[in-house]
Amino acid sequence: MLRARIVTLKRHYLNRRHLSVVRWLALKSFFNFTGGNVRLIALKKINNNFALCRDQNGTEMIAYGKGIGFGQFPCEVPLAQIDRTYYNVDEQYLSVLSELPDQLLVICTKIVDYAQGLYDSAVPTNLIFTLGDHLEFAIKRQRENIHVSIPFSYDIQHLYPREYKIGKYGVDLIQKELGVQLPQQEIAGIALHFINNCNIGADDERTELSEKVIKQITRIIEHAFEINIDYSSFNYYRFTCHIRYYVKRIGDQTQFKGNDETLYLHMKQTYPAVYSCMLLIQNYLEQTFQISCSTEEQLYLMIHINRLCTNEDCNR
After folding, report:
1. How many CB atoms are located within 10 Å of the residue 232 CB?
2. In this structure, are 247 and 305 located in the same domain?
3. Would 257 be classed as within a structural domain?
4. Phi-psi sector, 285: left (phi>0), alpha (psi -120 to 50), beta
5. Which domain holds residue 182?
6. Cα 35 to Cα 1, 26, 257, distances in angstroms
7. Name one GO biological process term (predicted).
8. Helix axes 186-198, 127-143, angle to 10 degrees
9. What was the pLDDT predicted at 2?
10. Which DSSP letter does residue 19 get?
């Protein structure tokens, strides 16, 4: 049984042409122990089915398997109990793993696996977790009958057919496995994650500008809400990703434009402190880029400020 499990995992990984050289060597060594004496050491529980582990080579990774989060740590985990391993995961995503449903993470893994077959270079492992965070929010909105328009759906379909295909696969998979029919424009929402993570060759000048903008916007938020943001948290990382993408859109002259006045007014009336903070940030961005923020960009900025402040326990 153990030998069969090793062979199954070996075939799974050997068919992954996106493996980095380092990970390939680690996995090659991992599968070539004499006598099949393959083992993982579980170091820390993340949740009932995820654990931080160390392989035979001393490399840390995240392992997924039913019930591996139970028991005393550290402990040895039988290979037959492991369904999936995730290498090169940033530490900040450990908290996300503990919050997202296992089934959704498995779905995101399938989406990234599908996407990998369409790319020549490796798709970042961390994309699984940022995509999971995005989809959990999208599924929640759908179940609560809250609709947010995603601009450029038509443009994305024609400008990025590969990423649009990935998005469609993801929406169809969620319908099949969770019974939730996301709106068709969410195809573009998923596609944007791959466009931003797999197609950007960020130049140094834009990167430097993005970091400068992020620092100033962070100061504005901290001053407005009289808080100290945890810069190492995933919530802050998610917020900075939004700002980086915004700076990219500014540079590409492709701001989001839509007609979501209802949600805009809802955010303005429900979260007045967030709206006021957004206006301060908008003023800074307009001075920096000499360009006005579209209403849709203002809306997305309010949503991200609100999410950041909610997790930072701001008193709004």
Report:
1. 9
2. yes
3. yes
4. alpha
5. 98-198
6. 14, 18, 61
7. regulation of DNA-templated transcription
8. 160
9. 37
10. -
